[in-house]
Batch of 2 targets.
Target 1
Amino acid sequence: MVWTSWTAILLELSFWRKASDFRRQAYGSWFLALAGVLFSLFDHLLRPAGTSEWVSLAGASALGYWMALRLWTKEGKLWVTTLAAIAASGYAMLLSWLQLPDVTVAVAWAALAVLLLEAGFRFHHEPLRTIGHFTGAMAFGRLFFTNFTNEGLTGGLSHRLITVVPVAGSFLYLYRRSREDAWPWLRMHLWLASAAIAILLRFEMGHVFTVVGWALLGTILLLLSRKYETEDWRWQSQILALMAAVRCVASNFDDPQSFAGLPGRLLTAGIVIGTLYAQEFLASREHRSRTFYSLLGSLLLASLLYREVSGSGLTVAWGLQGLLLLAAGFPARERILRLTGLVLLLSCILKLFIYDLRNLETLPRILSFMALGVILLAVSWVYTRFRERVRKLL
Amino acid sequence: MSDRILLLITMGVLALSAILVRAGKIDDKQDLESVARCCSDSIVFPY
């Protein structure tokens, strides 16, 4: 703190007397101050921080920002002011890390990121804005150290929820505020915000309902992507849909719990499948993501049927699914639904001849053949009887 | 909505978050074990 103060005095003298000697001495004592802070940091790891530490860091940080500002406004020195701002931001982050409750450190860093960005715009200092974005990314990293696994509570609300949501909101602000900069990498804020919320949902909703949270978040992101024409949100929505489907198969299908008399695996998988088909119709007609959501939903439903229906009834269950997809595909004018339905029916025929004929008992075998035969007859009848109407729908 | 109003809302929500945490039962822990638990719980599907 004293060395930093001495630096500030020398710097002011160099402005006043226009003397380069004072400037060189100022930079020297500044370097010593920085080394002193680093030494104190390592020393602190061995003993708890006291009043002297926070007073020293707060003073050094404030003086660092002030000197950076003076050097920028007086002489326009970009690199020195950038280094000074980095050091001052490091002091401020260290101060909040030492003094605040662990769970609020990320919140403080997010606030610092916003302030640095605003200062960068106010003083037309581009690197300061970059430091702000970098501080925001550090706040995201910090969430993993304490926030996601934190057990603190306030009025029934977890400290996870109370801290992660505002930090995610600050990422969206950082992105929106920087739209004039148009740096492509600033889109990282959109990904950081969504990733923070997705991971929060994992810890907030528990093992079973995480997939429901992800499916709903994916739907919200898809709607946002359509409203604001943001490709990143559409990609995120697709990634979340895939994650929800994979987690359903890998985890939820084995869930032994029941909710209101309904097996948890059916409830959660049903919601995810419903959400995937809803996303298909919410996605733009011009985009391939419709096909992705549709195929994922059909695949997940087929996997659920494979898991829930025993061997003898599986062919019939898949046949019925194919029939339903075909039936839905005509009025909805969704070619992918009709094609998926036909592929499922074809798979049923193959399964019937390759597996069922050899492995099933006589009665289930007869029933499978009859049921699939009736379904196929119904499909061919619809295609021939309503040929003209089907052509119009296509 | 103007940038200034959004800035006020963002900073206000961040400040409110810190105040709410202070008002509740704080769980003060930060360690690498917590990071490892966070990552493993996110990826592994235990049943």
Target 2
Amino acid sequence: MPENKDSDNSILDNQLAGYTDLVMKGRAPEMSSAPEGSLMRDLQNVVLDIYHVVPEKEPTGEMTERIKGTLLKEWEKEFGKRPPEIRLVKWLTKIGFSRPSAWQSTARRKQTLAISAAVAAIVIIAILAPFISSQGSLTATAIGDKGLIGVLLIILAAGSATLWWLFRRKK
Amino acid sequence: MNQNKIERRLAQANEEHDEELLRLANLGNQEAFTDLYERYLPKVYKRVAFLIPNVDIEDVVQEVFIAMMRSLKTFRGDCKFSTWLRVITNRQIANYYRKNKKSMQDRDIESDKSWLQRKPNPDHSTQERQEKKILVQQSLSKLPQHYREIILLRFAEGLKFKEIAELQEKSLDAVKSQFRRAIETLRKELGAQDAREQR
């Protein structure tokens, strides 16, 4: 028995959903194939009642502007008093770097990660470069001091290029 | 590329655009905020107009966006921006009904009826339709939140059942079933309201 009831309900669900789709498309909303007095007919009538409540109008241009005017005044009250932001933070935000948070999209997280990696590489190289060249004998390998500095310069250039590219992309 | 893929990509691009506007608005960028306002005004308007008497629609819509502005910092990204804005809209609608609780039943019908009577020779069907609208709005406001929501998504926002299923992360069958139960509950509520009106 419960199985029958489930399948009855499932048929009813699909019929009502189908009817609602037709009504929403504006296709013969007053027509119903369900027999008079049946549950389906009653439900379809409720669907029609709701359909007639659907607002036909969009917000008018005047209303849009009026609300916008009020919002801008409120905005001034809310944000006009804010202390100016630190330039570096502003610049980093502009190029796409921001503190990772749950609401960031995957693309933005990747971008933040790439910028962090490029900045970190440049900083590390800038710190290590003089040390490596003075302690060349300890760290230099088969490629030699000049080779090592060359590699570091290439990494530095790549890091800078990445930053430049990301910055351009943001613009 | 099939239609579904294109739709999904468009939706994703829209979400990312919202995120970006939200981030800039949070930094105090007024233009980003007005962009968000213009993007979402039609949706908010439809939802509000569905449940609130005509005369108060503009006020409630305005309250929604002021509430949104004041809550920008609290948006944590646990859900989509559009979902978050729906919650704010519903809260403002609930506030409206709470504030007008005592007067809603009397005032709504009476004020709208008197408004209709002030009009010279009001069209009978317009009047009937207006009364029906008030009745449906009142009944909708009494439905449990999840039932009201599915009706709003389908009728006010015009989302298809498949889109509602994706939004609510439910199966299509579950959504259709919930919709049917919502309509059944509304039918009972409309009957009860009608009986109250007859008295």
